[in-house]
Structure formats: C-alpha cells, structure tokens
Design brief:
Order of helices and strands: EEEHHEEHHEEEEHH
Strand order of the largest sheet: 1-2-3-5-4
Number of strands: 9
Helix content: 25-40%
Structural class: alpha+beta
Length: 190
C-alpha cells in the first residue's frame, strides 16, 4: 500500500528479501529534490536525524534499518508498524464512547517518553510529536515520521513546523528569539 506524504516522498510496505521481515520503505524522489534545494535540505536533515537516532537502535522508534540510493532517489528502510497509529486507536475507542484503559495509557506514555528521551540525549528533537506519529507494531508503540526532526543540541530554532494543534506557545510566537527543541517536544507529548 503506497502512501504519499507530500510532493517528493512516498512510503510503501515491503518485505526485506534477506530476512523476510516486513519493512516500510520511504522514498525521497531525486528529481524533485534536485529541482528544489529546500526539499533536498529537508531530505538530508531527516535522513541525518534518522541515522543518528537509529545508530544504536531504540525499541520505541521506527528505526532506520537501511538506506539505499537508486536513480529514483534515496530509499529509507524503516521498522514496519502495521497495527495503526495511536490516533487511529483513540478514534476507534472514541466512536465506541470508550477511552484507553489506565494500564494501556501508562505503557504507551512510558514507551514514547523513552523514545523522546533517547532522541533528546543525542541532541535532536522531533518537532511533530502527536498521536498520528506514534505507531503500534503489535508489541510496542514507536515514534515515527522524522520529517521535521533536527539535530539542534541547545541551539534556538526559528522555523515554525509541525502540527498546529500540538505546537508549544513559543513556536507560535517566534518574536522571543525562537525556541528550544526539547521543551516543544515535551509540550506536544503532554
């Protein structure tokens, strides 16, 4: 099943030939990146963060398993999480007039907190933490979609990115000299 994230990125479910594992393959189209420097910069930033956070692997991140280049573009092979997003699970419960039970909430919260702690310990931030970017693989919740992630350490950031409903107040008002990555991730997480 193919999903198009935007004008230059597509993702498909695939099977890794050597291991037989289901994987997600996110492709960044070369032609569109070559024609638009901003898209090439976005691709490079996302791949840099994915390489960094996946270097040691983390149980609660949709880790980068491999990166391949072809004439079509760069292909990022990622851990496949086929059981849907946290948003999907919450919506299903809401339609039934139910909520996530406390035990499941504690597990999901702890797992995503662990992923964010890992990312932040490496000097990176996600900048688009939301239920739609938390996927379930059948055993655990994993943070995914590093399209707005950046290696920032303690540097103040000035670009307003992410999903408006989950943005920290300092991202919405950049007049104060920008924002720090970790606090905006934690605001969205809360």
């Amino acid at each position: 099943r193919e999903m198009s994230f935007d004008a230059f990125v597509t993702a498909v479910r695939a099977e890794h030939v050597e291991s037989g594992l289901a994987v997600a393959v996110k492709t960044f189209e070369s032609a569109k990146c070559a024609a638009d420097k901003a898209k090439a910069d976005e691709r490079d930033r996302e791949l840099d963060v994915l390489r960094l956070v996946s270097e040691l692997g983390h149980a609660h991140i949709a880790n980068l398993l491999g990166l391949y280049e072809s004439a079509q573009g760069w292909h990022a092979m990622l851990h496949y999480c086929g059981r849907g997003s946290l948003l999907h699970h919450l919506d299903k419960l809401r339609r039934k007039k139910m909520a996530m039970c406390e035990g499941d909430t504690v597990v999901a919260t702890a797992q995503i907190a662990s992923a964010l702690s890992h990312i932040h310990s490496l000097g990176a931030c996600h900048r688009d933490v939301k239920p739609g970017n938390v996927l379930y693989d059948g055993q655990r919740w994993r943070l995914c979609d590093f399209g707005f992630a950046i290696v920032c350490a303690g540097r103040r950031l000035k670009r307003n990115v992410g999903t408006h409903a989950y943005q920290a107040p300092e991202m919405l008002s950049l007049a104060d000299g920008g924002y720090l990555g970790r606090p905006v991730d934690m605001w969205a997480f809360g």
